[in-house]
Amino acid sequence: MQEQVSRATAYTTLAAGPDFRHELEIKRSRFITVLRRCGDENAARALVADLRREFHDARHHCSAFVIGPDRMVQRSSDDGEPSGTAGIPMLEALIKRETQPAVTDLSDISAVVVRYFGGILLGAGGLVRAYSESVSTALDAAPLVQRRRLRLCAVSVPHAAAGRLENELRSAGYVMAETGYGPSETVLRLALPDEPAAIDDAGARLASLTAGAAVLQPEGTEWIDVTR
Question: Which pLDDT value is given to residue 35?
Fold first, then answer.
């Protein structure tokens, strides 16, 4: 679970799953971009270590990563390329990425570009463009999701009524979290925007659906992937 101390209530990240890979060839040099979803700095740096082992004969393993809902952790490395020609362009491709019109909120992502030199010098400007393009084109094809800080709220209902109530809540657009089961009741959990008005509205909807029998109990907050 993410740290809850954050001004941000949502951000965009790579969808959960395996690393995403994309390759470009520029003037005979191979640029292999690997993107990994990472929740902390150690995980982001582990991607570099993994790729050094996998592509042990490559000349450069340049990297950049952005971590946290507020994007407070930002690092990059040129890994032997001329200073400022690889890591910084890669980092800028991440932090300036528009995930929606005029929205730049990409985070919890590590990017490594593995370069196999093709014998043709690109020059400083060519390297900047190549590393920036490598990350940008990978992001164009990568699966991204929005991650939102949601308030978990629980409601206990008889087993016989749980299925109908859950279907009605889903149909109304509510995000359902983990369901719990007791001896005589089912505990449904809703993941709501972390705002008093949203919790009040959900409580009113539940009261309407259950003739006032169901009571919403706010719990903690959690970062949850939602459909973009």
Answer: 98
Query: For residue 5, what pLDDT is reported?
Result: 60
Enclosing H/E stretch for 163: helix 159-171
- Token pair 């390759």 is at which residue? 23
What crossing angle do the helices spanning 87-95 and 123-141 adopt, rounded to 10°?
40
Q: How far apart are the C-alpha atoms of 73 and 69, rounded to whole Å?
A: 10
Confidence of residue 51 (pLDDT cuts 50, 70, 90): very high
Give me 35's structure tokens.
Answer: 């993107």
How buried is 110 (Cβ within 10 angstroms: 0-12 exposed, 13-18 middle, 19+ buried)? Answer: buried
Rounded Cα–Cα distance for residues 225 and 222 (Å): 10
What is the Cα–Cα distance from 218 to 203, expressed in whole angstroms? 10
- Evaluate if residue 4 carries a pLDDT over 60: no
Beta bridge partners, 218, equal 153
In the numeric block, which tokens belong to residue 161? 């009524």
Compute, in degrees rounded to 10, the torsion defined by CA atoms 48, 52, 58, 64.
0
Which candidate, 209, 208, 190, places its Cα nearest to that of 152? 190
pLDDT in tens, 94-124: 999 999 999 999 999 999 999 999 999 999 9
> Rounded distance, CA 223 to CA 11, Å?
10
Which is nearest to 83 in space by CA: 62, 97, 65, 66?
62
